[in-house]
Design goal:
It contains 14 helices and 3 strands. The chain is mainly α. The chain has 3 domains: 7-26 and 140-204; 33-136, Hypothetical protein, domain 2 (Endonuclease III, domain 1, Orthogonal Bundle), CATH 1.10.340.30; 218-273, Winged helix-like DNA-binding domain superfamily/Winged helix DNA-binding domain (Arc Repressor Mutant, subunit A, Orthogonal Bundle), CATH 1.10.10. Strands 1-3-2 form a 3-stranded antiparallel β-sheet.
Length: 274
Amino acid sequence: MHRTVTIEAVNQFRNTVLDHYRREGRRLPWRETRDPYAILVSEIMLQQTQVDRVREKYLEFLAVFPTWRDLAGAELSRVLSLWQGLGYNRRAVSLQRCARAVLERFGGTLPCEVGELESLPGIGPYTARAVAAFAFGVATPFIETNIRSVFIHHFFADRESVRDAEILPLVELALDRDNPRDWYYALMDYGATLKRGMANPSRKSAHHARQSPFRGSNREQRGMILRAILAEPGVALSRLEARVALEAASLARNLEQLEREGFIRKDSGRFWIR
């Protein structure tokens, strides 16, 4: 840790965060449930996607796929159709694979241990710890963008290139071990407010990287192709070329990647969602 932090300073910090949460805490649908499945769905959706875009999609997704079994047994085309608008379609594929793994390996019950959560498709270190905290009340330290902003703002205001390794001991020190769920919600909401009211404190992080533009990116091209195949299952290559208006080399490269990654299948020159 880069400096000594007193217990008094930590207590004052906690009071600041919790006072803000009592005044301005957000009402979000995934905060109204303790269902591990619903919480995992929200965490996967929220990866690199704004809260306002997730809110409506989350409720729609759970209405169609309310359980592990419903999601595991669904056609991928249906899953991807509901996912449209969230971006990063790989997350939808991983989420379905995760549902199948939960059924096959854990009898339809999501494990609460971080290590077992990390062993599931699409669940990395942050998501495993967030789900453990929000679904099971496991008090384990983790960092995401809003939490990072809060700790940099309060404890590293005079620093640049702050490493997460410096922040994590403070996260653990301040952690509410009796109620980690509400504490992390409070941190996230306070961080979101900070970023609206000032220059984003996370820019002082050593790990900060500006997101590359979506317009014209390969991500945009892949999304266009998937939407075209969803809209017209069994579409011929010539028709696909007309619909997506991509250079032939870019279209061929993306089709090959999507097929290799399990998104689509090709049969007799026509394309379907797998």
